[in-house]
Each structure stands twice: as structure tokens, then as C-alpha cells.
Design a protein that fits this description.
With 66 residues, this protein is α+β, with helices and mostly antiparallel strands. The protein is 21% helix and 12% strand. Strands 1-2 form a two-stranded antiparallel sheet. The longest helix is centred in the N-terminal third of the chain and has 9 residues. The protein is elongated and about 55 Å long. The relative contact order is 0.19. The mean pLDDT is 78.
Length: 66
């Protein structure tokens, strides 16, 4: 079941709950720690600050870009 607009699809994806982050190794100073995210996103999005700045055009211009 899809979202009616691309904007609503993005909002739906970003509003998923955060997943469980599991470290694959002991953290060491100066070395990135590999992690695995299970069951959701690896971050929490602030939807109040979400802003769409570019929209696709429908009609003749959209067909010319192909």
C-alpha cells in the first residue's frame, strides 16, 4: 500500500521508530565502531524541522527530462 504523495512517503519513512543499535566491537579511541541497526532507523528524525525544498514538475517539462 503506497502513500498518496512522495512527501507523505518520506514522512512515513522518517517517522518509523528507532531501531536497536548493537556494537560489533569494543569502542576504541580514534577508530570508528562498526554497528548494526535492527528493527528500525539508526536515528530519530525531528519531523517539526522537516522541509521539502524541491518538487518534481508534472506535465510537458517532466517528459522532456527523460
Amino acid at each position: 500500500m503506497g502513500s498518496p504523495t512522495p512527501e507523505q512517503a518520506v514522512i512515513h519513512e522518517l517517522s518509523r521508530p528507532p531501531g536497536t543499535i548493537t556494537a560489533l566491537a569494543e569502542p576504541r579511541r580514534g577508530v570508528p565502531t562498526p554497528t548494526v541497526v535492527a528493527g528500525g532507523l539508526g536515528f530519530v528524525a525531528d519531523l517539526d524541522k522537516l522541509r521539502f525544498v524541491k518538487h518534481r514538475q508534472a506535465g510537458e517539462r517532466a517528459r522532456l527530462r527523460v
